[in-house]
Amino acid sequence: MRKFFYILLILVQTQVWADDRVWQKVSEDGNHDLDNAALLLLQNPKDVFKAVPADYPGIGNQVDWVRALAENAIVPRSQLSDTTEVNVLDLDIIMDATGEMALVRFPHKAHTEWLDCTNCHDKLFKKVAGGNPVNMFSILAGEYCGRCHGAVAFPLTECRRCHSESRKTFKGKAGAQPGPGKVYPVVTEQKVVK
Length: 194
Known about the structure:
CATH superfamily of one domain: Cytochrome C3
CATH topology of one domain: Cytochrome C3
Strand order of the largest sheet: 2-1-3
CATH architecture of one domain: Alpha-Beta Complex
Order of helices and strands: HHHEEHHHE
Largest sheet: 3 strands, antiparallel
Radius of gyration: 20 Å
CATH class of one domain: Alpha Beta
Number of strands: 3
Number of helices: 6
Distance between the termini: 42 Å
């Protein structure tokens, strides 16, 4: 019985920790001009992404960017100019104009650890509560959050990443939340939150 348990444990661990992510080569993905000589200068996603923490399999670019940053697997340049002052802001914003979906929790910290505030303010978002008519139609059209999500950040099909606060259990008011911000666990499944 004990031998069976150890074999089962090894199988479970192998299943959980196996990195079976697959990416298409840039020459085969249908997004790049095969006649362009610069194609040879591009790295294939597998060569770049295998070294960083895995995200939920088969979703987006399959990289957990927040965990990659926290584990120092990546060290992004935080600003283009050496004179830019980078301010990490540990402040979450709760958005409640979400219809019947769960509330949206926007974590500033996960964004400001590698993006300067001017990337979003005041070009994409006004720095005033209720000053941004954010909705899924505009996001899907590439506005607001859609400027990055669906392009370089996790895709918009990952609803529960943003719609993460249950209306039933959330205590408090929408808007800025007292810090520190919420710590997000590693994503392992697409849960439905209502």
